[in-house]
Amino acid sequence: MNAAAQQASLSTRDLTIRFGGHVAVNAVTADFYPGTLTVIVGPNGAGKTTYFNLVSGQLAATSGSVHLAGRDVTKLGPAHRTRLGVGRAFQLTNLFPHLSVLENVRLAVQSRAGIGLNMFSVWFGHKAVIERAEHYLERVSMIAKRDVMVGTLPHGDQRKLEVAILLALEPEILMFDEPTAGMSVDEVPVVLDLIHQVKAERNKTVLLVEHKMDVVRSLADRIIVLHNGTLVADGEPREVMQSKIVQEAYLGTPEHV
Ligand SMILES: Nc1ncnc2c1ncn2[C@@H]1O[C@H](COP(=O)(O)OP(=O)(O)OP(=O)(O)O)[C@@H](O)[C@H]1O
Predict the structure, then answer these.
(1) Are 76 and 201 contained in the same domain?
(2) By alpha-carbon position, which residue is closest to atom 18 of ligand 1?
(3) What's the CA-to-centroid distance between 189 and ligand 1, angstroms?
(4) pTM for the complete prediction?
(5) β-pairing, 86-89 with 173-177?
(6) Which is the closest atom of ligand 1 to the Cα of 42?
(7) Per-residue pLDDT tens for 117-158?
(8) Do 222 and 207 reside in the same domain of the chain?
């Protein structure tokens, strides 16, 4: 695990949310560090997406807290948390369907650069911004589709575009919720390669919700297991995959893990 001296980029403390009488996330305490990719696994309805929503600010906690680099952000909304370095892909709500692929990434590059919508600064930085946007489109193998209207793209391309937008925002914490779901067989490696590249840079905190065990195995530095909203295992992949609780209840029989 990481050196105790290193500050966690993200922490949750007793993080809890109730929907009526149902506790969807139950007192989850965890620290996440730069340079570590953590995969969150667990059966359907375990609370994985809800935990992501609590971290990114889409949902407000019933109790407990969320901290970014030591700062308590529990009361802050999602836009504020984004500005503080939380980046999340695969909600597809980040996309502007009536703009081109390039325009979508350009807006993310501008937002990251703090250029905003001031006309003079847009003009001033235009060439550099476009080049930057093209760079991210190349990284997701979508440069050939730069002028296509986003609303007309197939689902897999929209998800790749979301990765480009996420990278363009240059967050410190990257959250991927089932990044390859709904993708065709030839699209999956493009996205997995990108996550591998982000991981190889060793300076970002990456959280991934994933069901596919081959993906978990190839990417995870650490695995957290949620069950009924509760954190039931947390550790290095080999240790967690071989633990009795995971073998029996969460990942199936040993030959599946
Ligand atoms: N807005 C909501 N209102 C009521 N219940 C909710 C809400 N969001 C989630 N839940 C419930 O909370 C529990 C956890 O759901 P969540 O989607 O986080 O699970 P998950 O682990 O991501 O599942 P999956 O792997 O199927 O995506 C479920 O029982 C779900 O029905």
Answers:
(1) yes
(2) 47
(3) 28
(4) 0.88
(5) parallel
(6) 21
(7) 555 455 546 888 999 999 999 998 899 999 999 999 988 888
(8) yes
